[in-house]
Amino acid sequence: MSPGQPTTLVFSDAPLRPGGVMVEGGRVGVAVNGELGMVTLLPSEALPEDEPLALVVHFADARIPGSVTFRLIPHATRAEHHVRVYRNTRSCESHWQESRQQRERSERCEAALEQERTRPEGPRPVDLTDLFEAGLVGNGEGVMARRVTKDITQRPGETIRITEAHSYRARKRGRVAVELELKNTGARLWTAEGLEAAELVSPEGVRLRVVRVWQSKPLGPEALVYLVVEAEATEEQSQGSFLLKLGEAGGARPLTVRGVTFP
C-alpha cells in the first residue's frame, strides 16, 4: 500500500464479524462493508515505509480459520489497490496439526540459536596452508567466486538493501556460499534469524541444505554489515538460479533475494 492511496480487499464467501477488523500500529483508516465483504484501507500521507503494519480480520462464522492476519508493506509508489481474498476452510484436526508443527519449528529455531551462541569458536584460517588443512583447496582446485550484484533482485519495499553480492563454490568440500553486503535504510536494528529461517530454493523447488548463517554484527540504521549463507551442494545440485530467503530474528522483516547463481 502507498501513503494516501486506498487499498480494497474483497473477501469471497467469508462473512466479516462486526467490529472484527483492525490495523495494528495505527496511521491507517479502515472502512468495512460487511454485506459486500469489503475492507478498504485508507493510509495516511505520513505513513513511514520502514514500519510494516498488521491487518487483522475476524470472520463471523464458526469455520476454521476464524481470523487472518495480513502483513502490510508501505511503499511510496507501488501498491495493490484491489485484492481478492479466498478463504480455504479446514478441519480442527488439520489446524491443530499445523499449530504443533509451528511450535516444533519454533523449538528447533531456539535450539539452533542456542547451539550457535554456545558453540566455541575454533581457530580461524590465517595462512594459505590452513586452507589445505581444512580441505578447501588442493589438487589444483580451490574456492571459485562470482560477483552477482547485477544479477539479483529484491522485493519492493524491503528496508534491508543489498549493496554488493558474491557467490562462492568450494568444489572439494561440496559447499556453496552467498556473501551479501547489506545496508539498513530503516530505523530499527536488523539481525538474521539463523539456520531454521534460511532457504536456498531452485525454480524447480529443490532446497539446498543450509549449514550456516553468519552475520558480522547486528545491522543498525544506515549501517553496513556482511552476511554469509553457506549450504551443501554438488555442482549438479547448484546449477541455475536460486531464491534466497532469510528471516529476521524476533521480527517481521524478511530478506528475499532472487537470481542467486554459483560459479
CATH topology label of the largest domain? Immunoglobulin-like
Level-1 CATH class name of the largest domain: Mainly Beta
Shape estimate: elongated
The largest sheet is:
5 strands, antiparallel
* Mean pLDDT figure: 84
Number of strands: 16
- Rounded to the nearest angstrom, the radius of gyration is 22 Å
Q: How do the SSEs run, as a string of H and E?
A: EEEEEEEHHEEEEEEEEE
Look at the helices and sheets and give the structural class: mainly beta
Low-confidence stretches: none
**Beta-strand percentage range:** 35-45%
Second-tier CATH architecture of the largest domain: Sandwich
Number of helices: 2
> Level of helix content?
10-25%
Number of domains: 2
**If strands are numbered along the chain, what order do they take across the biggest sheet?**
8-10-11-14-13
- End-to-end distance, in Å? 38 Å
Give an overview of the whole structure.
The strands form 4 sheets. A 5-stranded antiparallel sheet has the order 8-10-11-14-13, with no helix packed on it. The protein has a 4-stranded mixed sheet with strand order 3-4-1-7, with no helix packed on it. The chain has 2 domains: 7-86, Sandwich (Immunoglobulin-like), CATH 2.60.40; 135-260, Immunoglobulin-like (Sandwich). The chain is 13% helix and 40% strand. A hairpin with an 8-residue loop joins strand 15 and strand 16. It starts with 6 loop residues before the first strand and ends with a strand. It has 263 residues and is mainly β. The model has no long low-confidence stretch (mean pLDDT 84).
